[in-house]
Amino acid sequence: MNKSRAPLIHITKRKTMPWYCAWGVRGAAIVAALIACAVVTMFMTGENPIAIYAAMLKGAFGTTRKLWILGQNIAILLCIALALVPAFKMRFWNLGGEGQVLIGGLAAAACMICLGNRLPSGLLIAVMTLASIAAGAVWALIPAVFKAKWGTNETLFTLMMNYVATQLVAYFVIIWESPKGSGKIGIINQTTGIGWLPQIGGQKYLLNILVVAMITVIMYFYMNYSKHGYEISVVGESERTARYVGIKVERVILRTLLLSGAICGVAGLLLVGGTDHTITTTVAGGRGFTAVMVAWLAKFNPVGMVFTSFLIVFLGRGASEITTIFGLNHSYGDILTGIILFFIIGCEFFINYRLNFRKSAGKEAANV
Amino acid sequence: MDNKVAAVKMRDITKTFGATVANDKVWLDIYRGEILALLGENGSGKTTLMNMLSGIYFPDKGQIFVDGREVSIRSPKEAFDLGIGMIHQHFKLVDVFSAAENIVLGLKGSGRLDIDEVAKNVKAICEEYGFEVDPYQKIYDMSVSQKQQVEIVKVLYRGADILILDEPTAVLTPQETDKLFAVLRNMRDLGKAIVIITHKMHEVEELSDRVAILRHGSFVGDMLTKTTNAQEMTNMMVGHAVVLDIDRPEPKDPKPRIRVEGLTVRDIEGVVKLDNVSFTANSGEILGVAGISGCGQKELLEAIAGLQPIESGSIKYICDDGREDELIGKDPLSIQSLGVSLSFVPEDRLGMGLVGSMDLTDNMMLRSFRRGRSLIADRKTPKKLAEKVVEELEVNTPGVSTPVRRLSGGNVQKVLVGREISSAPTVLLTAYAVRGLDINSSYMIYDLINKQKEKGVAVVYVGEDLDVLLELCDRILVLCGGKVSGIVDGRGASKRDVGMMMTRLGGAANE
Amino acid sequence: MFDIVGFIPRAVVQSIPLLYGSTGETITEKAGNLNLGIPGIMYVGGISGVIGAFLYEQSCKGASMNGFLAVAIPMLFCLVGSLLMGLLYCLLTVTLRANQNVTGLAMTTFGVGFGNFFGGSLIKLTGSDMPSITLSQTSLFFSRKLPFAERLGWFGKIFLSYGFLAYLAIVIAFVCAYILKRTRTGLHLRAVGENPATADAAGINITRHKYIATCAGSMIAGLGGLYYVMDYACGIWSNDAFGDRGWLAIALVIFTLWRPNVSVFASILFGGLYILYLFMPTGTNLAVKELYKMLPYVVTILVLIAVSMRRKKENHPPESLGVAYFREDR
């Protein structure tokens, strides 16, 4: 055989890789990414990497308060990511998490402001919950209707819906601004606390964490064991197969997006009613996008997503500690997150494909 | 013809995909001024072999010589540089481009693209060989035969003198086929080397000068067409004299089960796919459907299964008690809720019948997951069913939690058929049930179908191998261009008659 | 009365970053890559230019600056910065065949963080009280207007009152439109985005085309970031000021149905819609202004819907947009 003229590297698709190898590759990628981050940080600060990571750990876990904040951030990010899972499983690229959260939060805030003096707190919370869920669901339903009926590109549609939501919130922020001219809504019902979600055991964030934990479990069962979850997978894998067995594809798309939006609405409710007690255009803080990565990195497995959202929040919190200690600014966390994401995104290639080098054609897989 | 240097020599070419050996040490010579027919059954590796010549795949082992010089063809571009052009079965055309844009695609030249200049050259080629191509027409506006012409013109435009055509007639009407053959002969006489991949014997006899035969990925032999005959070629292609010997029990108490009347179907582009089709399928009987591929077989089955919008006509399901239900306008779910147990083994197994990335259990669930009121899907019953199918049909799999995509073609089909017959159907529709399967698996499938027939199921068997149709089916419905060309008795009809009916309405009527 | 002579120039200066972004994204998408990292890339382009300008201004403290270098250095920095981002995107999505949406979003996170981080660090270095960094000297070179613009009244104001990067954006857009439509390279690029298997069979190097289109697209988009800081914002970098213009640029790509020449006008329309609220007589009702800002996005959605309903093939996104290509897929 004429070896010298064969292509240098020949890429073939892997049939399968045992799960432990796959996770080994991912683990190696994370380690490599952490090393890369340490090198970058060393370059920036001149500190040794151990000190940097110690600072990160301290930033994330240092005090009880920090632990609670960590838990809260994980909960919200995870909640949004969970909302996206059913849509993604169906191969519906819902990039509109941001907007759906905002609208859910807006609905909650609207109830708190407009009904604050008319309803008892318990009833108001019930109304807020329904309003947030409905608002988020409708926001997700709009692109879904057009996708189901005309195949309108959902990636771009949902993306645009985020900004429509942002402007809508900006509009109401000015309508409701207090004090007038400040350009923001202060803490809503600060004195009465009406419409504030209850605190469990005096802990501000515990309720949010519990709610999201519950959603995680439910979503895990919904995706893996329910009939709906099964339909979603079939539609995602092959619409033709779905039609062949009589699944009504359009209906599944609408139903799934209603669910997706509804959970985003819950995230909005938790943010506005549970922690912030106010609304701004940045209440979701880009988490609608980060959640896409959280879900994707965990292969849409709700349990795996607990870890990926932990990883991302930990990096963010850790990086913000580094910034205060070493005098960098807070955006440093985004850079570290970006670097780690690139490594993990890239490593999937080595799980799915095999590199055959010219000399050892077909024998040895080049791996990380 | 004897002293010519081979335009292409392929030596010891081997290519594997995963565990499947697509080509095993194949030798092949291609000469200029000659039409070579590359003959072999489906899955015998013809297309893979030619793909390696046109740079789509790279051989694992072996050598290729063009005009006596050893070459390595790493990409389609390198193939073009060597004058090799291939017309694929699935056309490689960009839909939103015009013919001229497609033809000039990938060519080097001045930075600015003068499409009018290209169009002029295209017209010249068309006139030389007798094509009818409008250079400015968009591909998505074209018929299949027009697209094929664009493909051939494209290859000629690049000055290819070694042309490979992958089953070019599969999608053509008889008239279009005649035209194509005239063009090919014309090109041969102008000194081009032409390879046509086919499994149709009469095309080999009518068109080719030489024939090379592949069987299960291996090269069996080649010879001049005039020195051989259909019987010998068939034997070489199949490996032994064809005595299929498929069981055909007498139908027991056949009663009408499905009555189709005046069925007319158009595809999305408005092309008539089925034209006023009428027939009856009986219980306890296998009704074969024969025809050149793309003559409406797919639409016929999908119409009965409730997957195809219908323009006019009726499809009646006749219950045992004589009650008749109209199936038109119903989707698979509402047909099921009528109490009609209808099973369908579609042509596209992994794209329609099964979900490739799901395991056996989950695939078994496709039909049954709705059962019961619970929100939770029952996986225990499907798992048992999967285990049963694996055992009874001897499915070769590591376990029931293996994704079906990883199984071989024969095993995939066993899983699909196993699921479809598990629901005790009264109607079983099958499309190309043994395509790509080895002999053993094929016989197992015939056996399963026969068992269903004995149980009183009305079986509709769409097939492409006439020998099988004639040995398996009780009656054969022959389609030609979407119309019923005739319905013959499987026991009395001859292969020749059916073959004639496939290419001409009513068969021998004009002879 | 609506001040049209005042409105148009402001719409135009708003439109230029969008035009750069959308031109870059268009050629990227035409090659089949949906690069959602464009907002991040524009940030990186902007901040890289700022770093370049900052270094140059620092190096000739007091001494007068060379006009050519003052323009060339930031531009070079900007192009290199955005090129690196483009290469990163290609490495992940083309060579390693990663999911384009996820990669793009990660790049936007990274890019925005990168911009704000270095922006913040530079601000700290200058020790300024304001949360921004001012490079007014460099900006003067970028925003230098045509000398006779002042003398031509409204005509000069509407057509001639912009810095050179604005005209460059329009030139680039028309050149890209020409390349896509009339040249061989453009034909090949479009084929890669429509049907890579076909393009591959026709001997077009898919990987190379995707790399070149995406990297060129990134560099063009990066210039949008540079224009924003150096000309529009008069050399003042403040964190997050660039806002969501990157997403608007992506919206513009859909709005124009993948045609950069249309984008020249559409971006002005978008720029106009973007600042329309400043010109609408809303009186004291500031809130309504926020609703006006929604317009570009709503219009984009309507276009998206209209396109999908009309089913005209030419108006659809490139067929294989967002899909990685692997030749031996079977």
Q: Can you characterise this structure?
A:
The complex is a heterotrimer of chains A (368), B (511) and C (330). Chain A has helices at residues 19-45, 49-61, 64-89, 97-115, 121-150, 154-175, 206-225, 227-237, 239-244, 249-276, 287-297, 302-326, 332-352, and strands at 9-13, 353-357. With 368 residues, chain A is mostly helical. Chain A has a domain at 74-308. Chain A has a two-stranded antiparallel ribbon with strand order 1-2. In chain A, helix 2 (49-61) crosses helix 12 (302-326), helix 4 crosses helix 11 and helix 12 (302-326) packs antiparallel against helix 13 (332-352). With 511 residues, chain B is an alpha/beta fold. In chain B, the strands form 4 sheets. Chain B has a 6-stranded mixed β-sheet, with helices on both faces. Chain B has a 6-stranded mixed β-sheet with strand order 16-17-18-13-19-20, sandwiched between helices. Chain B starts with 7 loop residues before the first strand and ends in an 8-residue tail after the last helix. The model of chain B has no long low-confidence stretch (mean pLDDT 85). Chain C has 330 residues and is an all-alpha fold. Chains A and C meet through strand 1, helix 6, helix 11 and helix 13 of A and helix 3, helix 4, helix 11, helix 13 and helix 14 of C.
